[in-house]
Amino acid sequence: MKQTTTAGALIAAGLAVSPAHAQMALEVNEDGHASVLVVPVPTDNTGWTTRGLGVPFPTTPDMTLELRRQVGGLKVADMDSDGRNDIVVGCYISNSFPPYEDWHDFILYNDYANEPSDLGAWPTWLSDNETHTGDVQVGEIDGNPGLELVTVHGSLTTNSVRIFTGGVGGPATTAAFLATTPQTAWGTSGLLVDLDNDTDLDLVTANQGLSPSPHRPMYQFENEAGAMNPVPVWQSAEQAISGGLSAGDIDGDGDMDVGVSKWVAFTSGVYYNEGGTLHVNQGLFNDNTGSERGTAMADFDGDTVLEMAIGGDPTRLFDYSGGLLSPYWVSAPPFTSAPQDMVAHDVDGDGDPDLAEIIFGDGRAHIYLNRDGVLDTAPTWTFDASEVGTAVAFGDINGDGLDDLVTGYSGDTCVRVFLATVPPCSGADLAEPFGQLDFSDVVAFLVAFAAMAPEADLAEPVGQWDFSDVIVFLGLFGTGCP
Question: Does the pTM of the predicted model rise above 0.70?
Answer without folding.
Answer: yes
